[in-house]
């Protein structure tokens, strides 16, 4: 069935057609920023309003009937108690040194904190790392003094021990009061902080200076642990660093931080650039294509086996280096006779003329290794033949 259409009067009186009008919401104004918000959001806004002034600290004022009596009472209080009372009341007491409280123990007796934030008595009663005796280094770090000559001690073979109780009595006897002891600690800590700040500032300035030099030079200095700070000297070192890096790149070599030869050339200008590059190329070839390490170990082991004599450190180091040089020269001559299809280092190719000269005269090249490699020493000669007498 079709629905009957309503008349105009019925439609106007129908409850479905009438829209309920909502009452308008009243807006409230924030007393800090004067912005309008709904009642529900006003409270949330006021808690976080940026225009809201900060809370004033609560200051308690005590009713003091007699100033003289109050000053007399303050004279009985220790420095830690005066510091707390000063923070509570907001007043300033002339006898209070609030900066010293940070170096005191929590026991409220103006006792200097020696270890783990505890004084000697508290550390002795329940300190986690308490030791009745300490070494010289530990005593100087704990008590912030260097001169311990007046303290009774026990000398051992490798260190000296001090009794903690003796150290405590020595400090009180030296400074006469705990506050004087605390002032010394504050002074030492202040000086240490200033030195650390100055050192940090100088390091930042030095790092900024290294940033103006060649790329990678600052990293190289850190790798070789250099202590040079002179800017003019470092500029010259940076120039040699660039020169050596470019020369090594042309030979397909890399600058190694563990190479003493490269370090001496960059930092002091020792040796010639060509010698450094040729040696780096030679060492790369030795480690990559020859039994250089094994030959060196065999020569060094033979010295240790057949020579039981004691040598000074420098002389023994020279002997080890001589073994390495001998192995290097012998391998050079061996590869000059048979390169095994390898491209020899430029330094070895420069020895080829002397090697061929030794071969041409019929001399044993192994007897003239030093001359072939360095160009010094005895020159090879034609071996003499013995004439047989005819009978």
Report on this model:
This protein is mostly helical and 391 residues long. Among the domains are: 39 residues, no CATH class; 88 residues, no CATH class; 94 residues, no CATH class. The chain is 53% helix and 4% strand. It is built from 17 helices and 5 strands. The strands form 2 sheets. A 3-stranded antiparallel β-sheet has the order 3-5-4. Helix 10 crosses helix 11. The longest helix is centred in the middle third of the chain and has 34 residues.
In which order are the strands of the major sheet placed? 3-5-4
Written as H for each helix and E for each strand, in order along the chain, the element string is: HEEHHHHEHEEHHHHHHHHHHH
Radius of gyration: 44 Å
Proportion of helical residues: 40-55%
Low-confidence stretches: none
Q: How many helices does DSSP assign?
A: 17
Which key terms come to mind for this protein?
391 residues; mainly alpha; three-stranded antiparallel sheet; two-stranded antiparallel sheet; 53% helix
Provide a quick synopsis of the model.
With 391 residues, this protein is mainly α.
What's the SSE blueprint?
Elements: H1 8-13, E1 28-29, E2 36-37, H2 39-48, H3 67-74, H4 79-89, H5 120-126, E3 133-135, H6 136-143, E4 153-155, E5 160-163, H7 164-175, H8 178-211, H9 217-224, H10 231-250, H11 260-268, H12 273-289, H13 292-306, H14 313-337, H15 346-349, H16 352-360, H17 369-374
Antiparallel strand pairs: 1-2, 3-5, 4-5
Helix pairs in contact: 10-11, 13-14
Biased composition (Polar residues): 10-20
Region (Disordered): 1-20
